[in-house]
Structures are given as C-alpha cells and as structure tokens.
Design a protein that fits this description.
globular; binds guanine; Urease, subunit C, domain 1; 2 domains; alpha/beta; 7-stranded mixed beta sheet; TIM Barrel; about 35% helix; binds zinc ion; 17 helices
Length: about 450
C-alpha cells in the first residue's frame, strides 16, 4: 500500500521559547556571529529532527494543526554533550583523599570489578542514564569497564531510551589487579565482537578504549590501532597527561618515546576521531600535534580540581594558530557532578586562576556545538540547524529562589542581557535548572517541580 503522506509521529510538534544555540565558534568569531538567539522562537520538529527554526511570529502560520509546547520565559538550548565520563564510577564519586594513581588503586579498580555482573551493570547503567537526562546531557562519550558484559548493559540501556551514546570496553593488560586485566589478543577479540554487535546500531557508536598508556602494553595499544584501521568511524577514547606522577611513570614505562602523546602517536592512536581526556600537563608541542591530527581534548575541570591534577590551558588548546577541538567532560567518578552547568562553573574558575576569561557563551559552546565537533557529530547534533536530531533541553532561569532573585525579570531580548542571565545559570545552576529534556523530539525527562 502506498501512502501519500506518512502519518505524523507523536514527536511532531513545535516548541516555543527563547532559543539559544551556536552557528560558529565564539572562540574564533565575534559573539554576535557565533550565537543564534531568538527571544520568542519556534523550533519545529518532524520525525525526530529539526524541520525549522525561527521567530514564532514567522513560523507559527506554517504549523497547521501541529501542537505547540509553550515554554515562554524559558531558555531552550541543544542538549548538553559530555565528552568524557565513566558509567561504572557512578557509585564511587567523592572518594576521599588521593590523587590519580592511588585513587585508581584504592577506589576505582575494586569498584569496576563489580561490572562483570550483568545485572549490576544494567542497574547502574539505568541509574546513570537517568542522571544524565535529569542534568540535560543527551550525548556522552562513556567509559564502560573491562568486561564485555558492562558494554552490553550500557548499550542496551541507551538503546531503550533511543540515546546517541558512544562507549566501549576498557582495554588494560598490565599494572592493574589480575581480576581487571585482559590481554592484547583477548581485548582485540572482545572489542571486535562488541564493535560488530553495537557500532552503528540505531544511534549507538563504539569507542576503542584503552584505559591509559600505563595499563596497556605496546602490543595492546597497537591492537587498538588495528581495530581503528579495520572499521570506519570508530572512536579512540583514552586518558592523556592528567597528573604529574602519571606523566613521569609513562616516561619510565616507554623510555623509547618522546613523551606521553608520542606513545599514542607512534602506536597509531592519534587521529581525527581520537578523544583524549584531561591534557592538563601537555607541552606546547603536544597541543600542536593534536591540532595537526585534528584530534580532540576533553576538558574535565571538576575532576582536575578534585584529584588535584592541575589547571587545563584552555587558551592554549583554542589557540587560533593551532586550534584543538575541545569539549567539556564531567569525568564522573573523579568528577564531582553530572551537571555540565556545574562543569562550566568550574571551567570558568580554572580560567580565572590562569588569568583568563571564559565567557558564558564560550562555556555553553563547549557544552553543545563544541562537544559535537569534538566528537565529529556536528552533522547530527549540537545546534538547531534543520536536519539535526532534535535533542534539546529547557532551562529555567528562575529555577531556585536564589536564581529567581538573580534573574527577577524575564529573559533579555538582547545578547548582552542574555549573556548575563546565562552566566548566572552556569555558575548557580545544576540539575534543578533543567526543566525538561527532549530526545529525538520526545519528552524524556521533566522536572518534578513543574
Ligand atoms: N586515568 C586512567 N584511568 C582513569 C580514570 O578512571 N579516571 C581518571 N580521571 N583518570 C584515569
Ligand atoms: Zn576519566
């Protein structure tokens, strides 16, 4: 039977509110060229994708009988993108008193051991994804654990919610307890099977995930590179130059290489779809090499502060002469919040401590279109361009009594005004400021207080 008009899906609707997204990078062009702000805007959603974006007055006559969800007075932005997080570490946030290497041994490895159990893994994955949606995060690049079961559990939970998620099995064959170690060969085979099962299924994508150079032999890093050669569009996701003692240890473990990034480079892991978490201790030359390779960095300020790792050089990463793609990462469980608002808050303070300014628009860019670019997903998510997947959130600038005191009037009509209101949301906001989260145009979370 031929149908002239496909029936409209339940997600076909329009969203009215103050629309705020990015059409360019505010680190490189003036903010009025980078920001798209429509104070009384309309986002038209068909079949889970953005069909049109514009002023309510212009678009409302085109709607016919399409329903309109009215969020007048609220700020509507693309869903947040978390470029580095560990789902198995959800239950171990706020582990006291250690820096990276001791923290891994004392807290992290024993916690991740539990993820061999598929039931436990699925329970934590469900809790984790609920927490992401509650915080307005719609896409994340996620470490699972070393056990293939932990990857299955995560992807099953993400598929059930139709989320665009990237994850992969941790590869680690040394310098960790036996119960967490695989081998170069077994990690290759298990990753390969998971790639064939999950990569490109619905909205799911696979990241080859060696934990970091200290827990992988050279043979294992090369096995990871072989997987990247064999399958198109895979990601490489790992940690890089987070902590001073870690960097010294890598030099001891790999004396034949010219530094931490060079270990990944010479083993074939520094590529366009490689995402490196932290990069706190990188040299200028290493930043330049990342730029040349078009690889990405995940800036994880709450984690870098919590573990005492150091202050990320955002201005060096975004240097116009050799730009590196950068997104924000919560890095839960070393990170102290699931909220990318709170992550932006700490990113601002890290910049302050280095004598730099991170404007509200720059911070929001990192959490949205910047994250999408870091994950090479800017053709699918990150802003409201027609054709993009309709993952977006509703932020309430008066969500708490204190925010209402700070933002007594409605949303500003001009960019300068909304910059200030957005800044207050980044600094004072958290999950309470997220009124609703939509996935592919469908309501996936709404705040209990509304
Ligand atoms: N480096 C290697 N593993 C980890 C981890 O689980 N968390 C952080 N923050 N750094 C790491
Ligand atoms: Zn991490």
């Amino acid at each position: 039977m031929i149908q002239a008009f496909p029936p409209s899906s339940p997600a076909d609707q329009a969203i009215r509110g103050a629309l705020l997204d990015f059409v360019d990078d505010p680190f490189y062009v003036p903010q009025d060229q980078a920001v798209r702000y429509i104070p009384d805007g309309l986002l038209v959603i068909r079949e889970g994708h953005v069909a049109a974006v514009g002023a309510y007055a212009d678009l409302s006559p085109t709607l016919g009988d399409m329903p309109v969800a009215d969020y007048t007075g609220q700020l509507i932005t693309p869903g947040f993108i978390d470029t580095h997080i560990h789902y198995p570490q959800t239950g171990m946030m706020a582990a006291y008193g250690e820096q990276l290497l001791e923290w891994l041994e004392r807290y992290t490895f024993p916690t991740e051991r539990q993820f061999k159990d598929p039931t436990h893994a699925r329970q934590v994955a469900d809790f984790f994804l609920a927490e992401l949606l509650k915080n307005g995060t719609t896409t994340a690049l996620v470490f699972a654990a070393v056990f293939p079961e932990s990857v299955d559990a995560f992807f099953e939970a993400a598929a059930a919610r139709n989320l665009r998620m990237i994850s992969g099995k941790v590869m680690m064959d040394r310098n960790a307890p036996d119960y967490l170690c695989d081998t170069a060969q077994s990690s290759y085979e298990q990753s390969r099977a998971l790639i064939q099962k999950w990569h490109g299924q619905g909205r799911l994508l696979y990241a080859v995930t060696p934990r970091f150079a200290a827990t992988s032999s050279e043979a294992q890093l090369k096995a990871a590179a072989r997987l990247l050669d064999e399958f198109p569009d895979l990601y490489l996701h790992t940690h890089l130059s987070e902590n001073v003692n870690e960097v010294a240890w890598i030099q001891d473990l790999f004396p034949q290489y010219q530094g931490y990034l060079d270990v990944y480079d010479q083993t074939g892991l520094v590529r366009q779809r490689s995402v490196f978490a932290h990069g706190v201790q990188l040299s200028d030359q290493e930043f330049q090499r990342l730029s040349q390779a078009k690889a990405a960095l995940s800036f994880c300020p709450t984690s870098n502060l919590f573990l005492g790792s150091g202050l990320f050089r955002i201005e060096q990463a975004k240097n116009k002469a050799h730009p590196v793609k950068v997104g924000l990462g919560t890095d839960v469980g070393a990170g102290t919040s699931f909220s990318l608002l709170q992550t932006a808050n700490e990113a601002y303070k890290v910049a302050q401590l280095r004598g730099q300014k991170l404007s509200a628009f720059k911070a929001l860019f990192l959490a949205t279109l910047g994250g999408a670019k870091a994950l090479c997903l800017e053709d699918k998510i990150g802003n409201f361009d027609p054709g993009k997947e309709a993952d977006f959130i509703v932020l309430n600038p008066q969500a708490t009594p204190l925010l209402a005191l700070r933002n007594p009037t409605g949303l500003a009509h001009r960019l300068e005004g909304v910059a200030e209101q957005l800044f207050s949301l980044l600094i004072m906001g958290d999950d309470r400021a997220v009124q609703a989260t939509y996935i592919m145009g469908e309501l996936a979370y709404s705040s209990p207080s509304t």
